[in-house]
Amino acid sequence: MDVLELARWQFGITTVYHFLMVPLTIGLSLLVAAMQTAWVRTGDERYYKMTKFWGKLLLINFAMGVVTGIVQEFQFGMAWSAYSRFVGDVFGAPLAMEGLVAFFVESTFLGLWIFGWDKLPKKVHLACAWAFSLATMASAYFILAANSWMQHPVGIEMHDGRPRLTSIWAVLTNNTTLAAFPHTIAGAFAVAATFLVGIGAWHLWKKSDDEGVWRSSLKLGTWVGVVAFGVLAVSGDVQGKLMFEQQPMKMAAAEALCHTEEPAAFSVFAIGDLTRPDCENVKSITVPALLSFLAHNDFTSEVKGIQDLVPLYQEKYGTNYPVDERLGELSGKPIDYVPALPVTYWGFRLMIGFGAISAGLGLLMLWLTRGGRVPQGRWFPITALAGIATPFLANSFGWIFTEMGRQPFVVVPNPSGVDGVWMFTAQAVSASTPGEILTSLIALTATYGLLACVEVYLIRKYVRGGVAGVIPAKTDDGALAFAY
Amino acid sequence: METLWFCLIALLWLGYLFLEGFDFGVGMLLPFLGRDNTERRVMINTIGPVWDGNEVWLLVAGGATFAAFPGWYAALFSAAYLPLTLFLLALIGRGVAFEYRGKVDSERWRRVWDAVIFVGSWVAALGVGLIIATTVLGLPIDANGDRVGSPFAAVRLETVLGALAVAGYALVHGAIFIALKTEGEIRDRARRMALTMSPVALLPLVVLLLHVAGVWALAVLPFAGLALWRLWVGREGQAFAAMGLAVAATVTVLFASLYPNVLPSTLDPAYSLTVAGAASSPYTLTVMTWVAAFGTPAVLVYQGWTYWVFRKRIGVRHIPAAH
Q1: Which of A79, A84, A444 sits opposite B70 (nearest CB)?
Q2: Which Pfam families does the entry link to (chain A) (predicted)?
């Protein structure tokens, strides 16, 4: 494999892995802050136990999110130095802001929260939980602003062959960001909600102590999950409409829509060879005119297919890569404007499917446990625990779709923006040797794999331990006694 | 404006070295100062609430370099790829280890994570030293800012000296911090250790500074001497502050000798990345200046508050059995 392929695999693996921890942290931190608020306001011991139990799982997860986040910040410079030079004037700013404005708050106030249980006044301690939680969302906002700029560059002018920032406000209020933020945050709450539902249901089935804790958690998780799914659907629809406008090829690829249709049908399921963009041999179950609605809010309009988009892209952005030895084998070769269709087509469907399952599961669990009931069969806890995976999968497939769908670009041209601002992924990598990237790819993947086992082991242990496993033993003066 | 940002980035590295320097040191000294599990727990708890906040200084230094000097960020990080990878792995290991060590009540479990903290802290401290020495002393980069030659170009005698310099400093700084934050026997031991090892531990730092800046290097000595003297008379707080001055002097000397370059080319001075050549546009720098002007004081206030909340010394008597 060459540097480009290795660097892409590395970015994909480290980012998907990092984004398993991130949504759980974002969602759970706010729910824990809410539980603690309920405890401070009512004095009800049940909320205290909930805060402690879910808070412990939050910490185990957050630690992994932090350390894998460091890699994210460094690897742009390490493996994608040409990209970093090209976009640095714009892209670095939201990353630096994330560190300075959000991540400092997160890490400092989390430290205060962990160690401050007996040292800080109750309300100040609670404020630390909120500061932490809101900062995780602010973090997400800045990172999404950076990512959205790659999807839809705004607020810039061309200067010496590079985009130069002219309005930070335009970057931070990019309509792509404004649509991606609620979608991503709702996805994070879906993860946390299903986590509560699955573990709560399992404890109910086990007839663990503190039944009230598990019932309340299950109920909270269900309703948060349902609301999150509603927000996901609405914001996803807004995002989709923007995407048809900003990245028509991505949306055609999401549908594996080969030929332009008017009105366009939405494909629910396809059988056949999706790798070829001519659609012969592909049979698809479709809903008539639905795609037109998703794209333009009506049931009649035209949606452009891949085969008609390719010539438009070739005309605007060229038919061949420039002749440049840094492009390796791709130098001077024709540009393939069609993303990997099986990945985009199925990524899009799996995202929606798993998202719907996770919301439905919560409602099912709530109905099954209504009025103090608990089903006795083994299928009940197995379903509940397996369900925890669904929103994680939905998030991962969503991101894989959106990032693979913008290939071959790393910075996608903005059809209504400044001319000339785009970059092909092939142009973005460092002038490294394949050996360097392969070494880090293996080392990071192995480390991440090992740490995943450790995290799952710890989460399992603390889930099984229930409330009793997380309530601290009292000591004489309580100075940092039961710290971690 | 570029020069201001060069100074701000030096300041971020200073904050990082001063703060994470002592938590590296605590990890590096873990098996030497902590004789049993409880003592090691005491040591880890001295940095427990703060190490993560300290590490953010690195992320902000990296992010600010990306925003203010994309050329510097791209050239340095891609050219020193393998050393940085090792450094990141060390940070990952020790970060997870602090959080996970106490989560399972088993002697073996804790021993494994203690080893990860120990090795991770050493490798990370050496790594920071290597990176800083590399940016000051330069790399074989071409006109485009890309490395020419071996992936190990960043590892040579003078940069290894930089690695040892930061590791030695972290040892002394960490021992002083433990003396400041603990009580009883472990406090005395930490104090004695800082005093006895400092002539050897600080030697690479002095040699590095002499190599980089000649006699200006000696500016660091009075502060280091002050730190050891205050430690000798049992005023650990003042000793810790004096170490802060010593590291401030070190960073000032190193970055002053680097200016106006940000990453010299060892191939041809014409290829060296300069403050002007590697910087972002004036608009971006202005935006970042406003963010820093509001963000940095706030960070200092709430991080300072954290240290105030956890100002109490801790000792073996505070640690319950089995943690």
Answers
A1: A84
A2: Cyt_bd_oxida_I
